[in-house]
Design a protein that fits this description.
The structure is a homodimer. By secondary structure, chain A is mostly helical. In chain A, 73% of the residues lie in helices and 0% in strands. In chain A, helix 5 runs antiparallel to helix 7. Chain B binds a DNA duplex through helix 3.
DNA sequence: TCAGCTGACATACGGTTCGTATGTGGGTAT
DNA sequence: ATACCCACATACGAACCGTATGTCAGCTGA
């Protein structure tokens, strides 16, 4: 048997801590979230936390990785529903915008994440959204849909614009009314990369 | 005489605190910066700080406002050197990118700022860069250079893309080499808003 | 001129937080 | 059966933020 099987509930403890942290970080913000309260809500003590994640920042990294992964998965699902490559790409971008309307994602990934973990492009999860965007952009360039510009740069700017648009929509007083504006602007923006 | 003249060195105290905070926040980050050390470096005690700025967040807001103002001023100066309206606009965008290469600006405005003060578009300084961008975009639309899309949305996305590009360039290992890529991508991106 | 008041700033303290160092109980290998 | 290991609990120390209280300079009005 593998050595990891020693503790039956190890993975379960980690999962419970991440879930509790996700709620606490989203509700109170990273800085204001107390490790005591957090671990108590998870049904363990701080000992378990520091054993599994090292420190508060380590727990945050695990939470961000989980949320990031979920975002990428959802966006990819949306993109897969469209056949046209360019349309599929646009759909993914718009999916990011809508995903980022979730207050939990805003607080954890967009606001606290950079401050705690540094520049998102340096995260292990590679800001999974970005990874997916880069992949699609690369394909679109090979098929001649997009201008042959640096892939990384293109992905970074588009991703940045999308997330920023989401933050704007979410902070506005009437999200339902500003969302279409953001969508239209994003579409125009992205079309700047189209060939000819 | 105005009541504010009561204390001769009031403005001076504020300036010294802001200057010290700017150094500390840039070097250690907002969370790690100690108010004790900060005020000592400024030559005053924590009493002066809480009297002038209310709390730690208040001091951060003052610092961000100052940095933000300087950014807007510099970008505007650069934009003024170009006559062609569209060229001037592009120049300002690129100026933002280069400005954000400063580690101080990255740490204070791009990383810690949003976490501490919330969404940048809600700041009193209105992320001064954004204000300037909005003004220029509005002009370009009236003169028919840009497609008639929502001004706010356009400004937000462009500003977001620029700042994100800067973060990317700064975090890269060879900024001098990635900067041209970012510039090219930003130019293409912005051209998506051009008419026809 | 002078008593009184206001406001800027210093100082001492309490409450809370994070990270570590030490203790413990159950499973494992031999 | 014995010694060991590891996940986790618990107790402790250091640091920090914000506030409550104290002090002193300068304006005000008579």
């Amino acid at each position: 048997m593998a050595t990891a099987s020693r503790a039956k509930g190890m993975e379960e403890t980690r999962a419970k801590l991440i879930a509790a942290a996700r709620r606490a970080f989203a509700a109170e913000g990273y800085a204001a979230a107390s490790m005591d309260a957090l671990t108590a809500a998870a049904g363990v003590t701080r000992g378990a936390l520091y054993h599994n994640f090292g420190d508060k920042k380590g727990l945050m990294a695990a939470v961000v990785a989980q949320v990031d992964g979920e975002m990428a998965m959802k966006a990819q699902q949306v993109g897969a529903t469209v056949d046209d490559p360019w349309g599929s790409f646009l759909a993914e971008g718009l999916a990011y915008i809508e995903l980022a309307l979730d207050p939990e994602i805003q607080r954890i990934v967009l606001l606290d994440g950079p401050a705690v973990l540094g520049d998102p492009s340096q995260w292990p999860s590679q800001s999974a959204c970005l990874e997916e965007t880069r992949r699609v952009v690369s394909d679109l360039m090979e098929t001649g849909v997009l201008k042959p510009i640096d892939v990384e740069a293109t992905a970074r700017l588009l991703s940045g614009a999308a997330l920023n648009a989401a933050l704007w929509v979410a902070a506005s007083e009437e999200p339902e009314e500003t969302l279409p504006k953001a969508v239209e602007a994003f579409t125009s923006l992205a079309s700047g990369f189209l060939k000819t």
